[in-house]
Amino acid sequence: MNPATSHPVLTDGSRLIAEACVRAGADAYVGYPITPASLIFFYASRRFPIALAAPDEITALQWMAGLAAAGHLPVSATSFPGFALMVESFNMAYMMELPMLVVLAQRLGPATGTATAGAQGDLLLLDGLISGGYPFPVFCIADIEDCWTLPPIALRTAVDLRTPVVLLTSKEMVMTQERVDLAALPPIEPVRRTFYEGPGPYCTYGADENLVPPFLPVGNDRHQVRLNASTHDRCGIIQHTSDEAMANTRRLQQKVEARTPVLYELDEQEGAQALVVAYDITAGAAREAIWALRAEGTPVSLLIPKTLLPVPAVYADIIDRYPRVVIAEENLQGHLAHLLFGRRIPPHVRLVGAIGRMVRPDEIAEAVR
Amino acid sequence: MSRFLTDPELPFCKGCGHHLIVRNTVKALEAIGVQPLDVVLVTDIGCHGIVDGNFATHTVHGLHGRSVALGAGMAMALPPQKKVVVYIGDGGATIGLQHILEAARLNVDLTVVVHNNMLYGMTGGQPSGLTPEGFRTVLTPQGYPFPHHDLPRLVHDAGAPFAARVVGLGDFSDVLRQALETEGFALVEVLEICVSYGVKMNPDLRLKELAQQAGYEPGVWTRPSRPAFRPVPRETSSLLDMEPVEVRYTSPLEGRYALVLGGSAGEGVQQAAELLAQTAIAAGLHATKKGSYPVTVGVGFSTAEVVLSRPPIFYHGVTQPDAVVITSADGLENQRERIRKMAGGILWLDASLPVPETGAEVRVRDFRGRAGARNAAVYALWTFLQETGVIPAEAFAETVRRSSLGQHIPENLLK
Ligand code: SF4
Fold it and tell me: What topology is assigned to B18-222 in CATH?
């Protein structure tokens, strides 16, 4: 730290997320209070050009879809109980191809669980969220710097792919105050939005080989826009299962798989026989664990996935290089492990989990030894 | 053919009242002199919802019951010359009643046209919240046993400037025109009978008669106009306009030190812990702080965890605290399990409290007696620093003095 140029403050990830979203071009926030996402709502209410308080989370997502259809780039933050209410509307936004960002701050479940206890319990829900099993982009914050760097990437992805995106985080990440050097935060480029400028006729879902149709807001004076949450053709007209409509639905999967940015951190050590894989809040414990292991002379590597869905193929390539793999996450079921290996976890893979508390560095180190 | 339509052949059963709603809508739109691209038609789920393809306006086909909220999002963002029209059925209005009342309350600039044929036509004729008492449906062949919602009155009570009910026969375009010309929220309930399910189950009923029997009073309910809800984007300032913590102290700490402060809500526990973390940063350390309290934030325990560290902190959980500082009975109760498990470290305990079972060294101090309840937490942390020197106690006293707490702390307390 250079004292001459540093700007240390004590703050939390929620503040960085809200500020980063606005700098990246998000212009509307629709909130409904829920712990542990209420702090983001509080900051967003002060900072977003438009900040709305919805009467429930279904309304929140619908208002967001309406705002997005009219050309805004909306954001909301919630936790499982609120997100559960958003699910159908999230599917609608996915089918209509409307850009928006939902920050999902995980807390301890099931159901209302414990509002002020952290957890990593919603990844498998996200994997199956879209009826039919279609993927959408899910990025995950691994440390407080990510609270600054990931929202712009998530928003850019939402715009570039015309899709709702989830930024996954958890209670301990967004509510813990930490020392942050504001001078060290990189500048944020606003997301550039382009609208269809052709002569028409405009087809709302007429994509070329880049798989994402050009966007035009409803209410514009130039071309008719047809948005549709039901199965539809290229022009947004409802269909049963026509070839054109099925091709359009298939494209939703193709665009997300082909164009979601792949983000991860890989710290490989020569001679390492073990790889630790951890995301979200457990990434911090994993970092401390590998420091301790290396300090005692045990070589070990670390993979921190930040693009969680669709699961990038490169994770399998990395994992396959190691005779032992330790996957640590704050749940009992091994959500990421399940995404990577299915129900049959191979013998060389060890899972470290916890509920009601954070996974500790010593538990991860123990699993490596 | 009207310029608002691309195809005059509507997709409804012969004799369905939906035909008339479309025709009257088109007539009303023509009367107010807008162009097709000035109109966004938002449709719900139901037979009416497949009409999108016939319209030359912008069309949005959403989910069951949610179209009013979806349309509201658009209406908030579009200028007043753009008209957002929502088509919804009686079923959609039932499942989405909250959205309708909220849009009326906020006075969102929408025209909601409720196609009330008193049952769910698309799914086989089940009753909805707008099915009148005595009306026979496939699920209630003896007659529906409950009274219906009075939708225009509900939205009127919620603050809608314009609400109306019409019997869906003949020309009712003038009511729709008035709704479209309303600044803000307008709802028109159109009564119809579904020829496929409604007539089959109630063969003798005529629409007018039915409306009368059911107490479905035609009418218009208005309120004085008020501005439509159209949030204007505002200039805001950065959330990062924060005073930097000036690094002007030093600390002998080389590793990591974890402290738990336990007290009562309303006694400044969280602020004291935050000031400790800020002091640590001022002493060149890394610091994290988190709080825990019951949902009723004004009563019961209030606990804070602070980690101070020379190296960066990646894991900010506290498994084995080096110090636990307890200032009240609430704090002790909340931390009793952790204190019992302590195999080392130091427990600072207010003199008013019984010494709990613990493996930690116990130091009993008169925090509350010396400082009073409100300042006990700050004083306890100052005492902890005095006795350990993890950070200079004077640095903490200085941070406290400069904070909003400063003026409430007696001169000599932190000396
Ligand atoms: S089923 Fe009933 S509501 Fe649907 S189009 Fe036919 S008559 Fe109209």
Answer: Rossmann fold (3.40.50)
- pLDDT, averaged in runs of 10, over chain A (369 residues): 80 98 98 98 98 98 98 98 98 98 98 95 98 98 98 98 98 97 98 95 96 98 98 97 98 98 98 98 98 97 98 98 98 97 96 98 97
| Mean of the per-residue pLDDT values of chain B | 96
CATH topology of domain A8-184: Rossmann fold (3.40.50)
A165, HSE (Cβ side, Cα atoms, 13 Å): 32
CATH class for the region spanning B256-405 = alpha beta
Kindly state the DSSP code that residue A127 receives in the 8-state scheme: H
Q: Measured in angstroms, how far is the CA atom of residue B98 from the centroid of ligand 1?
A: 25
pLDDT at B29: 98
Whether the domain at B18-222 and the domain at B256-405 fall into the same CATH topology: no
Q: Tell me, what DSSP letter sits at residue A312?
A: P
The residues facing A169 across adjacent strands are: A105
Q: Whole-model pTM above 0.80? A: yes
Q: Is residue A272 a contact partner of residue A300, using CB atoms and an 8 Å limit?
A: yes
> Which residues from B are below 8 Å from A92, CB to CB?
62-63, 66
Q: For chain B, which ranges sit under pLDDT 50?
A: none
Question: Considering the domain A264-368, what is its CATH architecture?
Answer: 3-Layer(aba) Sandwich (3.40)
Neighbours of A37 (CB within 10 A): 30
Residues 6+ apart with CB under 8 A from A361: A285, A286, A288, A289, A292, B315
CB contact under 8 A, B315 and A358: yes
Instruction: Give the Cα separation of A170 and B145 in Å (integer).
Output: 48
Contact A46 B70 (CB under 8 A): no
